[in-house]
Amino acid sequence: MKHFPVLVLVAALVAAVSVPAQIKIEGRLGRHVRGSVVLGGHDARHHNHNEPVRRRPAPVHGHWETVHEQFLVPGYWHDEHLPPTYGWITDHCGHQHWGIIHQGGCRRVWVAARWETRCRQVWVSC
Q1: Which pLDDT score is estimated for 80?
Q2: Residues 6 or more apart in contact with residue 15 via CB below 8 angstroms
Q3: Tens digit of pLDDT for each residue in 7-16?
Q4: Radius of gyration from C-alpha coordinates of the chain
Q5: Predicted TM-score (pTM) of this structure
Q6: DSSP secondary structure letter of residue 49
Q7: CA-to-CA distance for 38 and 23, rounded, in angstroms?
Q8: Residue ranges of the chain with pLDDT lower than 70?
Q9: If residue 85 lies in a helix (H) or strand (E), which one and from where to where?
Q10: With the CA atoms of 50, 55, 60 and 65 taken in that order, what torsion angle do they form, in degrees rounded to the nearest 10?
Q11: Residue 53, number of CB atoms within 10 A of its CB
């Protein structure tokens, strides 16, 4: 009596292999474990009958090529930091001492538009 469910399953599988129509066997073991077997055709749940059946495309032969393209980088403002300038300073009495000649700071510089060559890989079919 212990082997009765196994015998029923084996008989169903043998019958499914011999019949050309689709037969689906589902089982559930507890809350988290499920299984299903579809024999003799495709699973009808995943097929939309309004769309034609799509076949897997044949493997495409080709190769990768490196393409060099010209790309325009537009002009922009760049904030440039100027460090302070140090040096010898002569005061009104003629004495020299080390100090800041120019304070430094920031200045805005316009960087003109320029063309760059950029490379990228493209797939070329044969």
Answers
A1: 94
A2: 23
A3: 666 666 666 5
A4: 39
A5: 0.36
A6: T
A7: 6
A8: 1-54, 56-59
A9: strand 85-90
A10: 30
A11: 8
CA 91 – CA 97 distance, rounded (Å): 8
116: left (phi over 0), alpha (psi -120 to 50) or beta: beta
Residue 55 DSSP label: P
Find where tokens 């050309």 sit.
Answer: 20
User: Which two structure tokens, joined as six digits, stand for 12?
Assistant: 């169903």
**Cα 55 to Cα 57: distance, rounded to the nearest angstrom:** 6
At position 122, the amino acid (one-letter code) is: V
Q: What is the DSSP letter of 104?
A: -
Strands 62-73 and 96-102: unpaired
Q: Residue 108 and residue 99: Cα distance in Å, rounded? A: 26
Per-residue HEC secondary structure of 22-65 comes to CEEEEEEECCCEEEEEEECCCCHHHCCCCCCCCCCCCCCCEEEE
pLDDT at 61: 86
> For residue 89, what are its two tokens?
């300073």
Which pLDDT does position 125 carry in this prediction?
87
Locate 48 and state its tokens: 């939309």
